[in-house]
Amino acid sequence: MFSSKHLLSKSVLFGKSVASKSTLSFPNTIIRNSIPSSLISHLQRRSLFIQTEQTPNENALKFIPGTEIIQENEKTLEVKSRKEAIGNPFATKIFGIPGIETLFFGKDFITIVKDPDYKWQLLKPELLSIMMEYFSTNQPILTDKYREKMTKPTQPENTDIDTNEIVAEIKELLDTRIRPSIIEDGGDLEFIGFDIDTGILRVSLHGACRGCSSSEVTLKNGIESMLKYYIPEVSSVESVQTELEALNVSEFEKFESKLKKLP
């Protein structure tokens, strides 16, 4: 459907190229002070199999356990608060660590986004402890019940044939040319909607893309430029909040307002 132009190189698309990988390993003193003794033997045997990979977002780290997290036909999943983590013991434990902001599940990796005030060298041992607890005992990271809870209802398709054809082209380009590079960097992009009258495409960024200083550059110089080139009907690409994100912000603002009214 599309001509054979190559996607912009990652160094351009994401503002900078980050390809370094490291394996989680810690001095014995740090392990013994930070991780329950019952897990030390597991860590010593298997920590080499959980790797970390840097992302364009310095506050996001990609954990690669060497096993499948979600199945090929399932969507990536993002958990953005302790409240959203309810019903998922693994996510609840992760959010029990101070400084954790977002948990993102990819096909074979987990991206964790932290508060800028916290250091990875202090967070890694606790995160590794929880991950080893689950991966070494084959406990489920995601259950069907929890996925169902976190999956928003599918919006009805537009009945306009021309619009549907354009949307299909947009989704194909996103899925084949753009999302693979973003997922490789520990994030994802979700199609939200397209306005045929204004040409505005609305998307939502997840995982390492959230809060990344280069995400706006990525959106405009990479994603928008490519979409406008292949699909002339697209005039602009905007990052928006999903309905669930907007609801969470609204609830937080209400709670904050109540606190201000307290004597």
TrEMBL record:
GO biological process: iron-sulfur cluster assembly
Classification via InterPro entries: FSCA_dom_sf (IPR034904), Nfu/NifU_N (IPR014824), Nfu/NifU_N_sf (IPR036498), NFU1-like (IPR035433), NIF_FeS_clus_asmbl_NifU_C (IPR001075)
Domain Scaffold protein Nfu/NifU N-terminal stretches: 50-138
Listed GO CC annotations: mitochondrion
Gene Ontology MF, one: iron ion binding
Family: Belongs to the NifU family.
PANTHER family to which the protein is assigned, alphabetical: IRON-SULFUR CLUSTER SCAFFOLD PROTEIN NFU-RELATED, NFU1 IRON-SULFUR CLUSTER SCAFFOLD HOMOLOG, MITOCHONDRIAL
Protein's recorded name: Scaffold protein Nfu/NifU N-terminal domain-containing protein
Organism: Smittium megazygosporum
